[in-house]
Design goal:
- There is one protein chain.
- This protein has one domain (14-251).
- The chain is rod-shaped, with a radius of gyration of 32 Å.
- With 254 residues, it is mostly helical.
- 84% of the residues lie in helices and 0% in strands.
- Helix 1 packs parallel to helix 5 and helix 4 runs antiparallel to helix 5.
Length: 254
């Protein structure tokens, strides 16, 4: 049985979302000029920069979706390749086992021995079927668990990106409103906006840590799969040993 070493890299936090925060901060806070950073032309800059902000955020969300689709395609391709290798391996084993039974039948010279070979073949076929069923079930359960975790993971990423953009947009709008007021203090408004964006960054970081902790979920799924496969292999070996012992007794005239 070829071990199925499924990739868990698709479950890691998509670091590209982390790039969204600097993008928004630079656009919203007006980090494009020294004067804007110092607050001298902050109000004028943030008032005139709205179109660029929206386009940058939209472009980044499109990039996130592209990455998600690429990961999904890669995972599906890997699974198809592994299924193909597993099926090929099983076909080869079936051929070898069939040849082995042919040789056993050639050795059988009495009705008792021929019946013993038939009984042995039935026991082996049943053991193989049971092992394959158990292994297939373990693989299916693992993949279903991974798919569920990925769906939850991607939902959390999308929600984090949406929340981050909403927080940044709201903070920017508050800054614009403050800048429009008579006697506006551009530097104070800029500092307030920076504080709001720092708070948004903290929420994003909390989400990132939560998603990173889900690595344990994938490890648990992989451990459960391994235990199921090991148990199936052990049961198969026991069944074959018992069937072989019965067959040998007949051929040895016991």
């Amino acid at each position: 049985m070829t071990k199925q070493n499924f990739s868990v890299r698709s479950m890691r936090f998509d670091t590209s979302i982390a790039l969204l925060l600097p993008l928004l901060i630079e656009s919203h806070a007006g980090a494009e000029t020294k004067d804007a950073m110092e607050g001298k032309n902050f109000c004028a800059h943030i008032t005139n920069n709205g179109t660029g902000i929206m386009k940058g955020a939209a472009d980044h969300r499109a990039m996130l979706e592209t990455h998600r689709m690429e990961r999904t395609h890669t995972l599906e391709s890997q699974r198809m390749e592994r299924d193909s290798r597993l099926e090929e391996h099983r076909t080869d084993r079936d051929t070898n086992i069939s040849e082995h039974f042919t040789r056993l039948n050639e050795r059988a010279t009495t009705d008792v021995e021929r019946q013993a070979v038939a009984t042995f073949k039935s026991a082996v076929d049943a053991a193989i079927a049971a092992r394959r069923t158990a292994i297939d079930a373990a693989i299916t359960a693992f993949r279903a668990g991974v798919d569920s975790a990925r769906k939850s993971h991607e939902g959390a990423i999308s929600a984090a990106a949406t929340t981050l953009k909403a927080d940044a947009d709201a903070a920017t709008e508050r800054a614009r409103t403050a800048c429009a007021a008579a006697g506006a203090n551009a530097q104070a408004i800029r500092d307030t906006l920076r504080g709001d964006l720092k708070t948004a960054k903290g929420r994003l970081e909390a989400t990132r840590k939560t998603l990173e902790n889900r690595k344990n979920e994938i490890k648990s799924l992989a451990d459960a799969r391994k235990q199921a496969v090991d148990r199936a292999v052990a049961d198969f070996k026991t069944a074959i040993v018992n069937a072989k012992a019965t067959l040998e007794k007949v051929f040895q005239g016991a």
